[in-house]
Amino acid sequence: MQMASATQWEVVGKSKVKKTKSNLQTVSKSQKKQFLEKMPRIESLAPVKEDKTIYSAFLEKEQQAEKNKDAKAVNGPNKKPVIQKKKKPEQDSKKMDKIVSVDAAISQIDPQELESTLSLSKDRFPENQDVWLKDLASFLNLKFENVKESESSLNLKGKPQGYPLEYLPTNSQKVLKAVVKKFSNQTLDSLFDYCIQMMLTESTKDRPTMGYRIFLQVLAHHKPEIVLGKLHQYLELLKTHQNRPSHCVSILWAVGQCGVKNFSYGMKVWLDLMLPALEIRQVAYYPIEYLEYLLGTQKQPSSATCVVALRDYFKVLDIVFNPGFNLANDLKKRLLALYPSIKELAFGETAAQTLRTFFPSYLARFNPSLNPALKLELLECMVKCLTTDKQSFSVWCQLYLKHLTASGFLLEYINHEWSRLSSLFDKKLLRETQRAFSLTNDEIEAQGKGDKGFPLCQAATKELAMKINHSSFPWFFLIFLLISLVGSIVAYDIWSSPSIYASRTMRFLEHYGILMVLEQAWSRINTFVSILTEWLKLNCPVYYAYICETVGPFVLYIWASIKDFLITSEVVTRPHRIWMGEKALHLYQWVYDLSPETWTWCYQMSLVAWEMLKNYTLWLWKHSTHLFLDVYHWVEHHLLM
User: Which of 207, 366, 426, 577: CA 20 to 30 A from 475?
Assistant: First the structure.
């Protein structure tokens, strides 16, 4: 509505709408463009400024106080502060002059400064423990502001696993350890995450991070449980930074500090975090170096039981023997060299009781299409299970029908390596297993349900039966038989000849020059024996006198001790011997009362045994003497003449 005059109203709404519609219909494109440009525009306002906190207020006061002091020092007490903008290059040059090495900066950290920083934070924020620890970590990192960290320092290449905490003064280490022990795991968990984030942020800005690294080491060494409970989170963090290799190595290094003091914790970190990190080609070297360090510190890997689970072991197996895994050749060789130690850790000390759980997984994983290295490893591991854990045979019998193809290849491998493996198997169990397989094969053949692996199993089972039942060639018996035969022929030839020199054996030896060689050897042996005899004649009395002089007193002492022992034993055991004699008489009387003819029968049997022993002893002595005399006369007539 619009007022038309002082006393009347006029309705103009509808006509206005029509007018605007008619005007819009007649407007051209250029006019529309001008109209839109003249339209009022909405400008976005700046974000609302964040309120000041107590902590920022304190920081501003300190910064303002420092500026006022600098201004008074330059302008005097009565002059206004003057800001000199052209002094930055000089300040930068001064900072460059103060650059020190990382080791020097670590050694200069004062434990009293750490304690005073912690006390100051407690006074400012008495109820906020997170701020205390974060201030202490930030202060520790500020000690390295004049240190230029190189790429090797960031990745800690060529440094021990305990670096840089090992280079920190002992008193400073004690202060940090005492601080860690005072706070709860929740607070320390928050601090660990904060230090990792700050380490990554500062390294992105090319700033020092050694202070945060030291704090991470202290936390991981003394409270490893706060890290082990969040390995999946650090794995996600690793994936988000996979395009930044230095960040990935820093994360792996920080979490891997748990294993510096505890081998089991280190293996858990490697299996859950570093094993997946092998897929990142730029940082794959670090997990392998870390594993080499862990296994190098553990002298007996098998003593660390329950470290590598069955599932984790087969993850490692798939990576090591996977030719398509994206890993450099030198790293593959190093990982392959470490694989036996991981397998030993998985088997544990009680392999005779644990390998029965590995056998089904080996059998299920076997496939003819696998690469040769993996197939050979699976077959060797299955043979290891069968030869070490005897319960693996029963497990194999249960899984035979389900894995016919794998069983056929295993039987064929045993047949092929029978000369090497036959001594390792329990022949009784192997024969029973082969018979069970033969019966199963007959049932399958009768039903006509054999799959593609059945012919191989049937042929391998029959071949194994032949190898088990067929004994090896008796080489030892053959050699013994040949020696006995040759010796008998030579003995008969010498015995039937008028003399040893007239025998065919001696003529054969003389004809081919063997007798001459034997005579030379005998002469040399005789010469050596004569020399040895002369030496013994000269030196034996000397050594005997020396031994008597040095050992004689000890021998006399031992003999006297033995005599004293025998005399003492006779005196001490005299009452017991008298008691045993009395009891023997009682025993004799008791047996006689029960059965009077018992002792008579025993006496008669002893007489018979004595007569038989005496007669046969005399017979043996007579015949032995006669045989000895015959041999002596034969040697005298045939050899000595």
Answer: 426
The answer to whether 598 touches 592, Cβ cutoff 8 Å, is yes
**Do 327 and 284 form a contact (C-beta atoms < 8 A)?**
yes
Residue-wise pLDDT tens digits, 404-442: 999 999 999 999 999 889 889 988 999 999 999 999 999
Q: Which residue has the tokens 């964040």?
A: 50
Residue 493, Cα to own-chain centre: how many angstroms?
68
Q: Which residues contact 468 (CB under 8 A, 6 or more apart)?
A: 427, 430, 431, 434
Instruction: Clarify whether residues 482 and 498 are in a common domain.
Output: yes
For residues 413 and 410, give the distance between their C-alpha atoms in angstroms, rounded to a whole number: 5
Is 563 in the same domain as 496?
no
Backbone angles phi, psi at 2, to 5 degrees: -145, 140
Residue 603 domain-assigned? yes
pLDDT in tens, 475-492: 777 888 889 888 888 888
> Rounded distance, CA 145 to CA 100, Å?
10
Q: In the chain, what is the straight-line distance between the N-terminal and C-terminal CA atoms, in Å?
A: 167
Q: 3-class secondary structure for 320-339?
A: HCCCCCCCCHHHHHHHHHHH
Q: What is the identity of the amino acid at 333? A: K
Helix axes of 129-142 and 185-204: crossing angle, nearest 10 degrees: 40
Q: Mark whether 623 and 562 lie in a shared domain.
A: no
CA distance 620 to 615: 9
Does residue 519 sit in the same domain as residue 572?
Answer: yes
Token output for 549:
């002089």
Residues 570 and 554 reside in one and the same domain = yes
d(CA 497, CA 636): 14
**Cα separation, 258 vs 222, whole angstroms:** 8
Lookup: tokens for 131? 């701020």
Rg (CA), the chain: 49
Residue with tokens 């039987």: 411
How crowded is residue 329: how many other Cβ atoms within 10 Å of its Cβ?
7
Are residues 539 and 506 both part of a single domain? no
Please count the structural domains in the chain: 3
The answer to the question of residue 22 being in a domain is no
Q: Which residue has the tokens 């191989």?
A: 456
If asked whether residues 573 and 528 sit together in one domain, one would say yes
What pLDDT is attached to residue 194? Answer: 92
Same domain flag for 506 and 521: no
- Is 567 a member of any domain? yes
Specify whether the CB–CB gap between 399 and 363 falls below 8 A: yes
Confidence of residue 22 (pLDDT cuts 50, 70, 90): very low
- Residue 482: which domain range? 475-511
Contact 305, 262 (CB under 8 A): no
Q: How many CB atoms lie within 10 A of CB 290?
A: 21
Among 511, 533, 562, the domain-final residue is 511
- CA 423, CA 428: separation in Å to the nearest integer? 12
Structural domain ending residue among the three candidates 488, 511, 534: 511
188 within 8 A of 219, measured Cβ to Cβ: yes
Q: Is residue 614 domain-resident?
A: yes
Tell me if residue 497 falls in helix, strand or coil. Answer: coil
